[in-house]
Design brief:
globular; alpha/beta
Length: about 70
């Protein structure tokens, strides 16, 4: 995992990267980043939940935790 600062994040998204928020569904519905798709961390699995991601494009995974 590599942390990404905002300017680099913006460039990646502008170049077509996919943004995945791994927040629980309720938190995602309450507030999420524009354009993000939700795949809760506890259900993350290569065979099913990530099957819809384009394997040719970078994926940025985001989770916010106040702890």
């Amino acid at each position: 995992m590599t942390p990404v600062l905002y300017p680099a994040l913006r460039r990646l998204l502008d170049d077509g990267a996919q943004l995945v928020e791994v927040l629980p569904a309720g938190e995602y519905l309450e507030m999420h980043l524009p354009g993000a798709v939700n795949t809760p961390l506890k259900s993350l699995d290569a065979a099913t939940t990530t099957a819809s991601l384009d394997r040719e494009r970078p994926v940025i995974v985001y989770c916010w935790d106040a702890l």
